[in-house]
């Protein structure tokens, strides 16, 4: 793809890639923007080699995911990379009080209790804002199947939250 | 918990994760510095310049308007005098009907004051100012009405003063 199209590409994906990174670095904005910057720098360098037939969503998502895995491997070599890729981490940063509100914390914790496929789908769809069409490209599944899976995952999430409420009360 | 409510809460969490303006600027600046994105600074700078220019223009014009309206140095045939006339006209148009005569009377008082200042500075009087000093009855009907209002007001003050003086004498 020609580099002159990069600006459009950047504007289209900046927000979602930032959010994708944000949840994977525990809501640390500084780290999120550093990693987002690196991801787009990498994307630009590889932009001419990018094959449009593969789908730009899946392409940038792969770059982002690999970059985060590498970043975690550098910081904490013992971290299970798959866990980092698939799970949302709850913020421990005191400044990010908005993200760590109790109710939201419980909701995010409940997502982590879902099977990893469902947790990934729910977080990508509802926390990161990818559309079903984009998720088809990223996850390589059919749109109908993803919608059904999302629906079932939401039901499971609801059950987990209700169960937790019952235990706490 | 309803599924739509759950979705709403998730989307609210999503909104909090949106990049802030400074995050967006930071990443854009880095990509711009690397030559990967075209300079947006020029547009930003142009926007800021336009804003600053507008603010300065508004401040200067408001200062000029205040000066033109209030200063004794602004007299007929000075550059700011037209601003004073415009402000007076606008004020006259904007006030409610019952206050219009008071504004007109104030304007006539200002004209009389201007006329006296022009005489003191030995400058030629414009036609209206001359008429106002020499033959106030020939001033247009609106101004005459204003003059009448003003005259009544003055008489009222004089009467009040006289009665209060008499009351003091007694």
| Count of DSSP-assigned helices of chain A | 8
Helicity range of chain B? over 70%
* Total of domains of chain A: 2
CATH class of the largest domain in chain A: Mainly Alpha
Task: Characterise the protein shown here.
The complex is a heterodimer of chains A (169) and B (170). Chain A has two domains: 97 residues, Rna Polymerase Sigma Factor, Chain: A (Orthogonal Bundle); 69 residues, Arc Repressor Mutant, subunit A (Orthogonal Bundle). In chain A, helix 2 crosses helix 3 and helix 6 crosses helix 8. Helix content of chain A is 70%, strand content 0%. In chain B, 78% of the residues lie in helices and 0% in strands. The radius of gyration of chain B is 31 Å and the shape is elongated. The model of chain B has no long low-confidence stretch (mean pLDDT 79). The longest helix of chain B has 30 residues. Chain B has seven helices and no strands. Chain B has 170 residues and is an all-alpha fold. At the A-B interface, helix 1, helix 2, helix 5, helix 6 and helix 8 of A face helix 1 and helix 2 of B.
What would a concise description of this structure say?
The complex is a heterodimer of chains A (169) and B (170). Chain A has helices at 6-24, 29-45, 56-75, 81-86, 102-112, 116-127, 132-139, 143-168.
């Amino acid at each position: 793809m020609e580099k002159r199209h990069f600006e459009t590409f950047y504007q289209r994906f900046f927000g979602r890639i930032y959010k994708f990174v944000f949840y994977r670095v525990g809501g640390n904005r500084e780290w999120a923007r550093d990693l987002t910057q690196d991801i787009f720098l990498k994307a630009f360098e590889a932009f001419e080699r990018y094959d449009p037939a593969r789908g730009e969503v899946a392409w940038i998502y792969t770059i982002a995911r690999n970059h985060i895995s590498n970043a975690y491997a550098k910081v904490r070599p013992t971290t299970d990379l798959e866990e980092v890729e698939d799970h949302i981490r709850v913020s421990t940063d005191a400044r990010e009080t908005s993200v760590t509100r109790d109710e939201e914390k419980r909701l995010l914790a409940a997502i982590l209790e879902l099977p990893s496929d469902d947790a990934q789908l729910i977080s990508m769809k509802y926390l990161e804002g990818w559309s079903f069409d984009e998720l088809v490209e990223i996850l390589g599944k059919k749109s109908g199947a993803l919608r059904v899976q999302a629906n079932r995952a939401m039901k499971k999430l609801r059950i987990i939250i209700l169960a937790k409420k019952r235990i706490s009360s | 918990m309803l599924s739509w409510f759950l979705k709403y809460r998730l989307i609210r969490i999503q909104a909090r994760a949106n990049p802030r303006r400074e995050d967006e600027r930071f990443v854009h600046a880095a990509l711009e510095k690397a030559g990967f994105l075209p300079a947006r600074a020029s547009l930003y700078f142009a926007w800021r310049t336009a804003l600053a220019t507008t603010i300065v223009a508004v401040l200067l014009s408001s200062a000029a308007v205040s000066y033109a309206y209030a200063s004794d140095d602004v007299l007929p045939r000075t550059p700011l005098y037209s601003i004073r006339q415009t402000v007076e006209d606008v004020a006259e148009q904007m006030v409610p009907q019952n206050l219009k005569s008071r504004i007109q009377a104030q304007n006539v008082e200002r004209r009389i004051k201007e006329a006296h200042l022009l005489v003191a500075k030995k400058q030629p009087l414009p036609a209206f100012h001359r008429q106002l000093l020499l033959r106030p009855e020939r001033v247009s009907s609106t101004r005459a009405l204003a003059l009448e209002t003003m005259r009544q007001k003055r008489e009222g003050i004089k009467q009040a003063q006289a009665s209060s003086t008499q009351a003091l004498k007694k």
